[in-house]
Structure formats: C-alpha cells, structure tokens
Amino acid sequence: MKESLFYSVGKENRVHCTLCPHHCVIKPGKRGICRVRKNDAGKLISENYSRVSSVGFDPIEKKPLYHFHPGQIIFSVGSIGCNLHCQFCQNWEISQSSCDDFEYMTTIAPDKIIEMASDRPDNIGIAYTYNEPAVWYEYMMDIANLAGDTGLKNVMVSNGFINPEPLQKLIPFMDAFSIDLKAFTEQFYLQLTNSRLQPILDALKQIRKSGKHLEITNLVITNQNDNPDDFEAMVDWIANELGEETVLHISRYYPTYKLNDPTTPEKTLNHFYEIASRRLDHVFLGNLRSNRGQDTTCPQCKTIAILRSGYTTRIVGLDEQGNCKNCGNNVIKFI
Ligand code: SF4
Description:
TIM Barrel, three-stranded antiparallel β-sheet, binds iron/sulfur cluster
C-alpha cells in the first residue's frame, strides 16, 4: 500500500480522486470505481501498490506493438483492478477484483522488478499490462523511474482513460503506448465499459503530441461495434488527428465474461481491414489465423519490411535505422 497521488480531501474526510475521468468522490472506508483506491480516514491509498498478479517475458508483438523494437522480448508485469468495467474483458479475473477478493498475488518491490527484468540480457524493457496500469500509477512510476537509469524501456498497455495531468507527468517516463480504442460511440463506452469515449480521444491526442511511440487496438465485437460507418469514422479520426502513419490493430472478439455475441466473422474483419487500409499506412489483423494483415510493408514502395507468422518476426526489408532497403523511406523509428 502507498498513499495515492492526485487527490484532495473534502468535507467529512471524503476524498476526490483526480487520477481518471471518473473523478470518484469516496467516503472513508470505501473504494473508488477501480476497486483498488481506498479512502483510509481521509487519505487515499493505492491498495494494489507492489501487489503483482502476473509477470513474464513476452514477445513485444503480444502487447500488441509491431513497430517498437520488433521481434524483441519484454518483461511484462500486472496487478489487479481497472477503472473500466468492460463486459467483454478477457482478463476479468484480475481486472474486476479488489485486494480483498483476489488472493493470488505476490508483493514485489520496484527494485526487485528491475532485477527480474534485467535477468534476461535480450529483454528490452518493462511493459505495464494485463490489468489497467493507470490504476497502479504510483508503482508504475516508481519502477519506470528506476528503469530509466538502466536503459530498460517502459511500455504502457492501457485503456487510455486517464486525466490529462497524470498522463502528462507519466509521459516522460514512457517510451511507448499501446492504447485500446474500443469503439467510436459514446453509447458503446457507456453501456459496455461504464466509461466515456471523449477522454480517451483526448489522451490519444496528448500522447501523439508528445512524440512517444503509439499504437492503437480496436476489438471488433459482433453486434456491438461492427457498424462499418462508425468504424470508418474512427479510422478517419485517427488519420486526421493522429496521422496516417498511426499503427492500427484490428482484433477479433471471442465470447467472454458477460458477453455472448458470436465470434467476429472473418468477413467483417477483412472488410474493416480494407476500410482502414484506405486511410492508414499500417493496419494489422489480430487474434485470428490469417496471412492477411500480418506483415509490415513500406507505405511508399510496398516492399515487405517485416514478415510475421504468429509471434515469429523477421525483419527483411529494413536497414538499421528502420528505413526501407528498397526506396529509403523511413518505415519504423524504433528498431
Ligand atoms: S482511479 Fe479509481 S478511484 Fe480514482 S477516479 Fe478513477 S476509478 Fe475512481
């Protein structure tokens, strides 16, 4: 446990948490919507500080990040809790739990995480992932601060539902962001995630403006966010506001947790891939076996730059600066 950042105390010891756009006002003894920030007699406590549910070395493509050190390994670490309550969450056992009802956690100090991450010489850094790392803010910052001295990269895999001030303070410590853009309607976000779309769009613009590496994932769910017009509006927004070079992962949904809609048909994913490819340079298909939407091609001359098969990655058409060997165009920055 550690005292939280970003809160104020009001009447009757109620605390106002300003970490995320929920702006929870929490009575003494109660927790916020994320279930891991608790008012302890007028002090907001991060209950999941140093409480780790999962660790492991993953291919960076699993985050998913395809244009940030492709083919490399990253040490991944997660806790419990989330500020969204997605009905289709694939990690709901950890994301929708509090420290009282999830017992499979280990206490690991930030310096120990650095030690564990440094265990493999081929590891490029630390990914804060599995549950929502924004609700683990203090721990993530403490680790990221230490990692900076070691040369380890910091990667945040997030839903993007975080307020501008905490995000701004976090950005200098992060090297890359993998952000879910779950849909492009407020109705979807309200009904299926208990949150809002606009703050996430604002966070995406803030990250893009910072110059840090950014990739976006959109999970296409049958009957819920598979309207082609909404999807096209989302792609247009990404192209116009974030740039056509923004990497978009279109991911296949499988029924899970509270949602029983059928698995997304391949036909829908292929159609969305075509829509997105008209505006964006780099579109990928995830969560399905397909030869389409796997490789990176040079947007200028269409030469294959990176070949992928599952999590096996081969850089075939880039030089050491990430430039296309055929035409010299810069395809990726972080190679
Ligand atoms: S971080 Fe948690 S407690 Fe704070 S506003 Fe968001 S949901 Fe509420």
